[in-house]
Design a protein that fits this description.
With 79 residues, the protein is of the alpha+beta class. The chain has one domain: HPr-like (Histidine-containing Protein, Chain: A, 2-Layer Sandwich). Helices cover 33% and strands 29% of the residues. The protein has a 5-stranded antiparallel beta sheet. A hairpin with a 2-residue loop joins strand 2 and strand 3. The protein starts with a strand and ends with a strand.
């Protein structure tokens, strides 16, 4: 799973990356799931660690997505 501590400064960058992805990206925090392209939805999850879940099974596309969000502070977790 891809995790990211989300603060207000990262919202626009994350939403732009999710919007350009050729698949949907879910942003998950405990029991709340929002579309990664929704600025208002993602903004509601600020100041917490969220899971970024690409809705694809293609490992190459997932790796490409991870490389784009890694500069924002994203990291893999084995949980």
């Amino acid at each position: 799973m891809i995790l990211l501590y989300l603060d207000l400064e990262k919202v626009n960058d994350l939403c732009n990356i999710c919007d350009m992805a050729p698949f949907d990206v879910s942003v998950i925090s405990s029991n709340v799931i929002v579309d990664g392209s929704s600025v208002m939805g993602v903004m509601g999850l600020c100041d917490r660690t969220v899971e970024l879940k690409p809705v694809t099974t293609n490992p190459i596309k997932i790796a490409e997505f991870y490389n784009k969000v890694k500069p924002l502070g994203a990291y893999f977790s084995k949980e």
